[in-house]
Design goal:
heterodimer, A: alpha/beta, Rossmann fold, seven-stranded mixed beta sheet, 12 helices, globular, B: mainly alpha, ABC transporter involved in vitamin B12 uptake, BtuC, two-stranded antiparallel sheet, 11 helices, 2 strands
């Protein structure tokens, strides 16, 4: 047999083989832009695990209508400029229709790009108020800081804590939280005595705490997204006589485990993982399925539900079609009930108190 | 009382920064290398001590072993990187970029090994309070930081002026060409200098994380502030670098009394920029 006849036979055989085998469904590529290095990595890594866990689960079941899900993870180091680079890479080179995102600054930076390029952004970790209206293509599975602050503000006033000081992170999330608290606390009848900033990743809070303590507040409201353990330690060392309160930013697992955090209260989106799910997660990653892992697992499940609807309707999986399908479904029952009347889901919010390594609910759903 | 406590906190931070500054100054004034990777050595020392402590090694021994590890790492950097770049006639810019690259490698290695989480040293002793009277309180580790860092400053002064090696280093720093022809072996001195500076920077590199936690990217800000202190103090002056570090920290802390925290760093450094305009060689520069 000559070389050319061998080639012809191979081509014919390949053609027959492809005709006999059903066409393989194409993988669906999604993106995730999260802080995987830097001070935000403790949260970003858990977010990554939550998405990967949900993805592995759905792929183990054969994917969505035969389409495997592939998530491309990009590291934004919690920096807006890095997030923009990652967005362009994922959208222009990989052509992803949807991207999981986290942290307010980076998410706000890519929101206009998502609008322009019609890419669905799913945020399950950032809470700046600006996220609610940043883009029609941005959906938030968490309430904004404002929603949580409103609950905490009312709780504090109801418990006689009417004079407050504020320690906030000097970035989009922290400044937004501070502004919300100052506005809502005053509206509820409280007084703001002092406020001091901290830089992202900072761990020496003593100068700011000294200044804030000198104002003699009833409560210190804290809006920082990293460095909770050193803060709790320094508060304990200073033996501060006032209550310390915050939002779910405080719910760093390491801070909860720190005995010095005992007495700190914070709002908390109520999201639990069933025991079998949590143990499977632990077996896979040798880590507890913390709040952020649960949030992003839940967000991934919502995304998969939306993709299935688009596929069932025989439409292409584009950001625009995903967005339309999400608002058509509107009610989701993942790890928690979630309603998308607007871009920001309505979910139950509790008030928790850290007690000797545990996070105990002291007020269910803000009541 | 708040002012006094802020002042004392400034002294604590300043003493730690002072040791970073004098160790960086020793390298810069001798090797003329802007050794940015010194921030990586500072951070690495903390992680080495952390690993040892987590494996049951007593705190003091862990500190000493971290200093040894840092000295070896510093010497390796000089022999394997800077010496080779010098042999290939690498410009100052090339050396700076190599040092920056090395810093990124060290930081990312630490993050990969230990995670980017803020790690806390075990042991309750460090958080115990020392009452200095008038309501002025420090944690034990803060108190220890001041003592150790002042001793390190005194030790460096004695080393530089009273020991044979110290005098040899000063001679090489003063005139490397003359040192070469008088057989002071500058290349060997450079290795000693970077090893000694790396060991010394481990003192704050371990003690500060004992108080505030460990982060793989935590060394850059102290080095930046220490560099400014070194320049404002007068390049080559150990006393200048140490005192200016303390002064910057105290001013930064006390400025909180009259302005919000977001302004304090900017205003403090603005004051030093103005100062440098009038005395560009630094406060303690040799005339």
């Amino acid at each position: 047999m000559t070389r050319s006849s061998t080639m012809r036979a191979a081509v014919v055989l390949a053609g027959l083989a492809s005709a006999a085998t059903p066409a393989l469904a194409k993988d669906i590529q999604l993106g995730a832009i999260l802080p995987l290095t830097g001070p935000g990595a403790v949260v970003g890594t858990q977010e990554e695990r939550g998405i990967q866990f949900a993805t592995d689960q759905i792929n183990a079941k054969g994917g969505i209508d035969g389409h495997k899900i592939v998530v491309q993870f990009e590291d934004n180091q919690a920096k807006p400029d890095q997030a923009v680079l990652s967005f362009n890479k994922l959208v222009d080179l990989q052509g992803v229709p949807a991207i999981f995102t986290g942290y307010s600054g980076p998410t706000l930076a890519i929101a206009p790009l998502a609008t322009r390029k019609k890419v669905l952004l799913i945020n399950a970790g950032a809470q700046s108020d600006k996220l609610a209206t940043a883009s029609p293509y941005l959906v938030n599975t968490l309430p904004t800081t404002q929603d949580e602050v409103a609950i905490m503000s009312k709780y504090l006033i109801a418990h006689g804590k009417k004079k407050a000081a504020v320690l906030y992170e000097n970035d989009a999330a922290g400044i937004g939280g501070r502004d919300d608290f100052v506005r809502l606390f005053k509206k509820d009848g409280g007084t703001i005595l002092a406020q001091e900033p901290a830089q992202f990743g900072q761990t020496d809070y003593r100068p700011a705490l000294l200044k804030l303590s000198a104002a003699k507040p009833d409560v210190l409201f804290v809006v920082i997204t990293a460095g909770m353990v050193p803060l709790a330690d320094q508060l304990a060392q200073m033996k501060v006589p006032y209550l310390v309160a915050g939002t779910s930013f405080m719910a760093d697992p390491a801070a909860i485990a720190d005995p010095n955090s005992t007495g700190l209260i914070h709002t908390q989106v109520h999201i639990d993982a069933p025991a079998d799910l949590a143990s499977a997660f632990h077996a896979k990653f040798n880590a507890d399925m913390d709040f952020f892992a649960r949030q992003y697992y839940n967000a991934a499940q919502i995304t998969f539900t939306v993709i299935k609807k688009v596929l069932d309707e025989k439409k292409p999986v584009t950001g625009s079609n995903l967005r339309t399908a999400l608002f058509q479904i509107r009610h989701f029952q993942g790890l928690i009930p979630m309603d998308f009347a607007t871009n920001t889901a309505v979910v139950p919010v509790d008030i928790n108190r850290m007690e000797h390594g545990k996070d105990v609910t002291i007020s269910a759903n803000g009541k | 009382m708040v002012a006094l406590q802020l002042f004392v906190n400034g002294i604590v931070t300043g003493c730690a920064l002072g040791v970073v500054a004098i160790s960086f100054s020793l390298i810069y004034s001798t090797l003329r290398i802007f050794h940015v990777a010194h921030a990586g050595i500072y951070t690495m020392g903390g992680y080495v001590a952390y690993s040892l402590v987590m494996h049951g090694v007593p705190d003091i021994l862990a500190l000493l072993l971290a200093m040894v590890a840092a000295a070896m790492a510093g010497a390796a950097i000089q022999v394997l990187l800077y010496q080779r770049l010098a042999a290939r006639k690498g410009t100052h810019l090339v050396v700076l970029i190599a040092s920056l690259g090395l810093l990124a490698v060290i930081q990312n290695l630490l993050a990969a090994i230990y995670s980017a989480n803020i790690l806390q040293f075990p042991g309750a002793w460090s958080g115990e309070i020392v009452n200095l009277g008038d309501g002025i309180r420090l944690t034990k580790v803060q108190f220890l930081t001041v003592i150790v860092c002042i001793l390190a400053y005194i030790g460096m002064m004695l080393f530089a002026h009273r020991t044979l090696l110290g005098k040899r280093i000063r001679a090489v720093a003063s005139n490397p060409f003359l040192a070469e022809i008088t057989r002071l072996r500058p290349q060997a001195v450079y290795v000693y200098v970077i090893a000694i500076a790396s060991a010394v920077v481990c003192l704050p590199g371990v003690l500060v994380p004992y108080d505030l936690g460990l982060q793989p990217y935590g060394g850059v800000t102290p080095l930046l502030t220490a560099t400014i202190a070194m320049i404002a103090g007068g390049v080559g002056s150990i006393t200048g670098a140490f005192l200016l570090s303390v002064a910057i920290s105290v001013v930064q802390n006390l400025s909180l009394l009259v302005m919000p925290g977001e302004w304090s760093i900017g205003v403090t450094f603005f004051v030093f920029v103005i100062f440098m305009l009038f005395r560009p060689t630094g406060l303690f520069a040799a005339r």
